[in-house]
Amino acid sequence: LQECKIQNSSREYCKIFAAEARAVPDFGAVPEIIPLYLIYRPANNIPYATMEEDLGGPCEQYCVTERDGSLVARGTSEIVLKCCTFQHWVYQWTNGNILVTDMEGVGWKMTNVRIATNLKGYQGLKESCFPSLLEQFVAAHQCNHYCSILGLKTLEPAKPKGSKSPSMGRKSAQSSPQLQK
C-alpha cells in the first residue's frame, strides 16, 4: 500500500511537471511515472500484490540512492538530466519538503520511485523518511540545461511552508497538488 501511495503521488507531481515543461519551447520529452496498482486476491496465500504496466525491457537506473545514503545520477543522458530536473522541480514545488529520490525505467517510463521527506505522516509514514537526503540534494545537485530553461532557481535549504509552483513564466495561478493522508 505504501509503495502504491508513493509511486502514485510522485506520478501526480510528474504530470504537473510535464504540463509545465510542455509549455516551454524546446524542452522536449518528459519522464512519465507509470501507475502502480494494489490488487486484492482473497483466495491466495498472499492476498495483496502490486501490478503495473510491463515496460517491455530491462529497467535502467537513472537516479538512485546508494547503500551509503548518497544520491547519484547515473550518467548524463537527456533522460537522466530531465529526471534530475524533475527532482529539482519537486523539491522547489514543495518548498524543500519532498524529494523524489529514485527513478528507474525503460525509456521515458519510470517506476520504483522513492521519496525523501521531512513531513511527518506523509503518505502514511509514521516517521520522517530519509530527511537527510533533502539536505544532501541541495548540496549536491548541479543545475543543468533543463533546470535553466524551466527557470528553476539555484537550490538553497528551504523552510517548510505551503507549496507553490516553481515555474517563473506562469500566467495564471494554480494550486499545489493535495497531499494524500
Automatic annotation (TrEMBL):
Origin organism lineage: Eukaryota, Metazoa, Chordata, Craniata, Vertebrata
InterPro entries assigned to the protein according to its UniProt record, in alphabetical order: a-kinase_dom, Kinase-like_dom_sf
UniProtKB keywords: Disulfide bond, Immunoglobulin domain, Kinase, Serine/threonine-protein kinase, Transferase
GO annotations of cellular component type: nucleus
One MF annotation (Gene Ontology) recorded for this entry: protein serine/threonine kinase activity
Pfam family, any one: Alpha_kinase
Domain Alpha-type protein kinase: from-to ranges: 1-155
GO biological process: cardiac muscle cell development
Region (Disordered): 156-181
Protein name: Alpha-protein kinase 3
Composition skew (Polar residues), residue ranges: 172-181
Organism of derivation: Pelecanus crispus
Keyword rRNA processing listed: no
